[in-house]
TrEMBL record:
GO terms for molecular function: amidase activity. PROSITE patterns: AMIDASES (PS00571). Its EC number is 3.5.1.4. One of its GO terms (cellular component) is endomembrane system. It comes from Streptosporangium becharense. Residues 24-452 form the Amidase domain. Keywords: Hydrolase. The keyword Hydrolase applies. This is Amidase.
Amino acid sequence: MELWQLSATRLAAGIRTREISAVDVVTSCLSRIDSVNPALNALVDVRPDEALADARRADAAVAAGEILGPLHGVPVSTKINTPQEGRLLSHGLASLAGATSAGDEACVSALRGAGAIFLGRSNAPAFSVRWFSSNDAHGRTLNPWSADHTPGGSSGGAASSLAAGMTPLAQGNDIGGSIRFPAACCGVVGIRPTVGLVSNWTAPEDTSIEGPLTFQAWAVQGPLGRTVADARLALRAMAGADLRDPFGVPALPGSPPQTGPVRVGIVRDVGIAEPHPSVDDALDTAARWLADAGYEVEELELPLLAEAARLWSLLLFEDMRPGLPGMLHMGDEGMRVHLGYAYEYAAELWGGKPDLATYIQGWARRATLITRLQELLGRDRILLTPVSAEPPFEQDADIDDPVRGRALVAAQWPMTSLPVLGFPGVSVPTGLADGLPIGVQLIGGRFAEDVILDAAQAIEDRAPRLTPVAPR
């Protein structure tokens, strides 16, 4: 087995014990990038000389007996909308195609401090607002399983490069499924952590810290990995108390104590979009595996998730409305069409231009939903839901037809409901359906990441290994 095929957990252990050199790992990953990235266009701004220099320093630190971080010498990609000092920060915009960042976002600093080696920047749609990964600045990213289907978005380059073996870990961010959906489309693991667990602080010159309230309160940084253990390792490396983040927690919380066996509530359909048969099958498979692992599994009706998904379309899109003219001017045609259909969908729910009272009541209602969900979950229950009501979408399905475009927003209710509530969710694959990856989402109480990762591990232990995969 070649080094690029190994898990991040295995690489970190091998580098630490000097069984494997960081230089050899980076060289292997760079060779894999040369081999498959031209076909997938998942990574941009790859700098081999810098990566190899960092790898040599990593090996020297091991030889010198220095204290090593948990990701020492492990390659990782970072996303083109996340500031990394001296690296491309284009946001997928042609007008910013050569822009670079003056400093690191906190999550990048955490990865750097953990010893990770940065191999490249992962592609994403313009302004990261589509569940596809195409833009005028860097082109289209393909899914290694099928060029005709989305790799997901907005962290599509992260998921595609990870699934194809270019890096063992990837950083992404999520305000509407941008970690969890690409992970499902490409057959890898992605976790959206509880708001505040991973710092979302960014350099002062990046005005996103003063962006809309939904961006501040809902957007999170998180990892993608080929295995649950890798995602857990990267999450622990990225997490940290950071009071510069207005929603950051003052100390890292521990796992909530459990009073008995963990119960799993299956939420299949909340009345917004009927699940595709392959989505239902994935839920049945995951439920059976969890029951086999000792979980108590039951079907559950949970309309509050539907209400949260509807609030996503109200609060996020109204927060975006003041800046919408500038976004439409700077963005590409795909982004403009997608946003047009998304706003049409929101108008069907809330009217063409909701008034201030509706907006304020939406925020007030959100607090009630959060409380009710936490009471339901308690310390010993998690939820099992689809990732999306549909399998991976065909390329550009969100912009080819207005009816289809609005339907895709509805299909993403499992993705959009969770950011509104601020709870953690993990996307884990269960297998293939018609040659494409299919998976499920697990939702836990606030700061119960270890609980849902344990359940994801139980699923992974029984599922076929899908990645790394050669582009098809």
